[in-house]
Structure formats: C-alpha cells, structure tokens
Amino acid sequence: MCKNLAIILSLILLNTVAVAAEQSIQQDLIHDKAILAEEYSNIGSSFLRLKKYHKAIENFDITIKYDPSYASAYNSKGTALDDPGKPLEAIENSDYAEAYSNN
Question: Which domains does the chain carry?
Fold first, then answer.
C-alpha cells in the first residue's frame, strides 16, 4: 500500500513539473511572437519609408500573423495599400487599426 502511494505521489509530482515546463515554454513562445511582430513591423515601416509598398505590405502581414491585435501594423498596411491605389483595402485596414487601438 505504501509503495503504491509513493508511486502515485511520484507520478503527480512528475505531472506537475511537466505542466509547469509546458506553461513556461508557451509563455516563451508568446513572448517570442510579440518580439517577432514588433521586428516585422519595424521592417515594414522601413520599406514603407522607402516606398517599397509590396515589401512593406508583406512585412505588415507577417506582423499581423504573429499578433492579430497589432493596431499600428493595420494602420501602416493601410497606408501602404493606399499609395498603390487600393483605397478600399486601405480603409479596411484602417478600420482594423481603429478597432484594435480601442481595446
């Protein structure tokens, strides 16, 4: 009986450690995604300043993939879309930016 109890307690302890490790990994991934979103946004902004709109849009799309609530990425993508003559898509992205900036 005592041996079975020790085994059960050991399994519970191992499970607790495994869950804690998994949560730590998930937190690291979330943090990594936020960093990646910011970096791609910066790259997109650089392309936007260089008037390389297609490259800017690609990078803002990646930013949004990593952080769908990144309001300034939608706003900047809207600006990039407006210059090549895609006003409806620009307005749509500006609307997303406004919605996420109010959250």
Answer: 23-101 (1.25.40.10)
